[in-house]
Amino acid sequence: MDGILSAFSLDRKVAIVTGCHKGLGQRMATALAEAGADIVGVSFSPEADETRTKIEALGRRFVYISADLRSTKPIGSIVQTALDAFGRIDILVNNAGIIKRNDPLDFTEEEWDEVVSINLKTVFFLSQAVARQFVAQKSPGKIISVASVLSFQGGIRVPSYTASKFGIRGLTMALANEWAKYGINVNAIAPGYMATDITTQLREDPERSRTILERIPAGRWGNPDDLAGAVVFLASPASNYIQGHTLVVDGGWLAR
């Protein structure tokens, strides 16, 4: 492969993708595989057979780990499983996350802690563990976390989610400052309103769905394919001089 397209190749790279069993995580995992990477998939689901089938059909290898990322306890085994299977790690995509909707006057400590634990705390400590491996390998690496348009806005009835996604944007900048010297690129992708499980409640509310669509210049909800190019770009050598950036993929939502 010659010219600019070679800068987007992930041939012989190994990527860990959390929340890989469906939706945005599954599509980002398959996009990385299409670009040449082998995949270590992590999700709470006991299996990820559909993701495995898609990746293996591309001729890439797939190792799956079922883990509850509301806790940091699985992190060591995730890294070790990746190393046992492939001998190295080159890319981490922190995609796993949850949302809790409730009026802030009624929001519980449990709702707060569960969201912040998986959306932010585990993201930091998994990034730390993978960055340590990059340094031990003496090789460059890519860390990509999934932020949100609510990394820029307050949202409605989602205080812990908004706080966690603002945190992802800030953490992305902080880690980029610290780890660029090791050849580690730390960036984020901020999806807009995507047609996934996390937005089912909004899409099934005719009034909320209408007001959301009216604001999106693209005139539609996003879909997992809309993140494929973004994640490959940020995982590839084409983005080597991009650090601490949150790439918004929102159909123009924030431009309105």
Describe this structure in words.
- This protein is α/β, with parallel strands linked by helices.
- The protein has a single domain (3-245), classed as Rossmann fold.
- Helix content is 41%, strand content 15%.
- The chain contains eight helices and seven strands.
- It has helices spanning 23-34, 49-57, 75-86, 109-137, 159-179, 200-203, 206-215, 228-235; strands at residues 14-18, 38-43, 62-66, 91-94, 141-146, 184-191, 246-249.
- A seven-stranded parallel β-sheet has the order 3-2-1-4-5-6-7, with helices on both faces.
- The relative contact order is 0.15.
- The mean pLDDT is 97.
Characteristics:
7-stranded parallel sheet; 8 helices; alpha/beta
- CATH topology value: Rossmann fold
Number of helices: 8
Rg, nearest Å: 18 Å
State the distance separating the first and last CA atoms. 40 Å
- Overall pLDDT confidence: 97
| β-sheet strand percentage | 5-15%
- Under CATH at level 1, the class stands as Alpha Beta
Q: Low-confidence spans: pLDDT under 50, at least 5 residues?
A: none
Q: Going across the major beta sheet, what is the strand order?
A: 3-2-1-4-5-6-7
In CATH, the homologous superfamily goes by the name NAD(P)-binding Rossmann-like Domain
- Specify the helix fraction band: 40-55%
Quick one: overall form? Answer: globular
What is the CATH-assigned architecture? 3-Layer(aba) Sandwich
Brief summary of the model shown:
The chain has 256 residues and is α/β, with parallel strands linked by helices. 41% of the residues lie in helices and 15% in strands. It has one domain (3-245): 3-Layer(aba) Sandwich (Rossmann fold).
